[in-house]
Amino acid sequence: MLLAEMNWPQVAALPKDTPVVFPVAALEQHGHHLPVFTDSMLMGEIARRAELALGERALFAPLQWLGNSHHHLDFPGTLSAEPRAYLDLLAGLLENFLAHGFTRLLLLNGHGGNDVPGRQTVFEVRQRHRDRRDLLLLFATYWNLAPDAVSAHPDLRQRQMGHACEWETSMILRLAPHLVHDPAKVEPVAFGDAFEPAARGWTMPDRSTPGHVGDPRAASAEKGEALFQTFTTATIRMIERMIAWDGRSWE
Question: Which of 86, 189, 214, 221 is 20 to 30 A from 17, comparing alpha carbons?
Answer without folding.
Answer: 86
